[in-house]
Hints:
Blueprint: H1 3-13, H2 18-25, H3 29-37, H4 45-59, E1 62-64, H5 67-71, E2 78-80
Antiparallel strand pairs: 1-2
Amino acid sequence: MEIGEKLAKQRRQLGLAVEDIASSTGMSVRQVLAIESGVEQIASAAEMSRMIRLYARKLGILVEPDPAALASRRLDPQVVTPPPIPHFLLKQEAGRRD
Length: 98
């Protein structure tokens, strides 16, 4: 499974919309969708690496993209899954209580 697929799956599991990720990271909806769909190159390798790390961090996932893979136009970073984020630290949806 590619990193974009993993990020999209985790985003859906957390009940977040693409727009939520875009607004909280400063990326455009187009950029978030491009990362999730595995678009090979929407920015420089360094910028792609930054956007992937930012997106993953928002979901509570530690990611270290492989610069060589990004430079060769492949999104194939190493993924390390940390322990889950406590619910009280996650942004609550309006009108939703746990």
